[in-house]
Amino acid sequence: MAIERTLSIIKPDACEQNLIGRIVARFEEGGLRVAAMRKVHLTQAQAEQFYAVHRERPFYADLVQFMTRNPCVVMALEGDDAIARNREIMGATDPAQAAPGTIRDLYGTNVQENAVHGSDSLENAKIEVGYFFPEAEIY
Ligand code: CMP
Questions:
Q1: Active site includes 54?
Q2: pLDDT digit string (tens) for 15-49?
Q3: Cα–ligand 1 centroid distance for 59 (angstroms)
Q4: Residue nearest atom 11 in ligand 1 by C-alpha distance
């Protein structure tokens, strides 16, 4: 197993419901470590750039509006196989399909307001972590 870093975002819906601590606890209990963490209110330009890969999708405008409506928490999580582990702990994108006990099962509302984001590959994790954290702020 390789030690990896991945980007996690606790989205506005979860922050609004005061779920930050409970969500971080699930990552920690699942074997991941918070290596960097910051609360941030994304601007429209930041959200558009972060989700640029979805630019052509019908949900893109709604997604940008959702991600900018209130602050979120961005984290670099570190651990063995962190990318896959994070995705296991989060559950499927659509909370209705998420395995029991996963974060999206417990705290997600619908396919858009799904509580958390996690990088989907090593390549994207490097890009996404670098989007929010310079190396000197990752411990
Ligand atoms: P996330 O893992 O952050 O990646 C893209 C986001 O787009 C997703 O979680 C959801 O918040 C949002 N989204 C909205 N509608 C859909 C959809 N139909 N399929 C996938 N993602 C969606």
A1: no
A2: 999 999 999 999 999 999 999 999 999 999 999 99
A3: 8
A4: 112
Sign of CA dihedral 37, 26, 8, 18: negative
Please tell me the residue having the least CA distance from ligand 1 atom 4: 117
Give a three-class secondary structure readout of 55-118.
CCCCCHHHHHHHHCCCCEEEEEEEEECHHHHHHHHHCCCCHHHCCCCCHHHHHCCCCCCCCEEE
Provide the whole-model pTM.
Answer: 0.97
CA distance 122 to 133: 16
Can you give the pLDDT at residue 1? 79
The structure tokens listed for 89 are 């702990």
C-alpha radius of gyration, the chain, whole number: 14
Q: Separation of 136 CA from ligand 1 center, angstroms?
A: 30
Q: Which of 11, 13, 63 to mutate to test the pocket of ligand 1 (most atoms within 8 A of CB)?
A: 63
